[in-house]
């Protein structure tokens, strides 16, 4: 984004080699992770990730094969910044370290990062695609994917809020095999 800042505005047409390679690498990651989930027989427990991966692949393939929306693909990858703090949270929960100061600090950092790097870019992209809804067939397809991702991100956000900020409302035995609850 700092090499080609027009990707923030020209989501459909802006292109850079680094953005294109990032979309290719990310598509490869999503393919690898999908195959890993299927091979390790975790499809039932990880169906949400599989749905997310298929939708993400649709977005990245638009950039890879049609050279369109590379900027949009790069913007969607901003969520990975938020994943750093979500992963720290998950590791601390696995180790029952919720009582540590680091966990308490991380839960507030998580909130800020989730807003800045998940909710805000998704809202920006959704606004962009809604503006041009009737004008682009590929854009309409991507808007459908984006709206489904919006729903998933809001569900995950509500789970995060309930788990970290309203822990009395989350049943302790329900979904104990899921890391988000």
TrEMBL record:
Superkingdom: Eukaryota
GO biological process, one term: phospholipid homeostasis
The keyword Transmembrane helix appears for this protein: yes
Record's keyword annotation contains Transmembrane helix: yes
Keyword annotations from UniProtKB, A to Z: Membrane, Transmembrane, Transmembrane helix
Main location: membrane
Topology in the lipid bilayer: Multi-pass membrane protein
PROSITE patterns per record: TLC
GO cellular component terms given for this protein: plasma membrane
Residue intervals passing through the bilayer: 20-39, 111-132, 138-157
Domain TLC as annotated: residue spans: 1-169
Entry's localization field: Membrane
Protein name: TLC domain-containing protein 1
Organism: Mustela putorius furo (European domestic ferret)
């Amino acid at each position: 984004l700092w090499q080609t800042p027009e990707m923030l505005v020209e989501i459909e047409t802006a292109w850079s080699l680094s953005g294109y390679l990032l979309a290719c690498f990310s598509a490869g990651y999503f393919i690898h992770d999908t195959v890993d989930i299927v091979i390790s027989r975790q499809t039932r427990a990880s169906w949400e990730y599989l749905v997310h991966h298929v939708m993400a692949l649709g977005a990245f393939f638009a950039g890879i094969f049609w050279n369109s929306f590379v900027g949009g693909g790069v913007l969607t990858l901003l969520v990975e910044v938020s994943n750093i703090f979500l992963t720290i949270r998950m590791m601390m929960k696995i180790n029952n370290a919720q009582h540590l100061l680091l966990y308490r600090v991380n839960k507030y950092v998580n909130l800020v990062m989730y807003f800045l790097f998940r909710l805000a870019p998704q809202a920006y992209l959704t606004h962009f695609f809604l503006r041009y809804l009737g004008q682009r067939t590929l854009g309409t397809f991507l808007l459908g994917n984006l709206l489904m991702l919006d729903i998933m991100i809001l569900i995950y956000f509500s789970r995060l809020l309930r788990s970290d900020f309203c822990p009395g409302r989350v049943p302790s035995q329900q979904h104990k095999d899921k890391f988000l609850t």
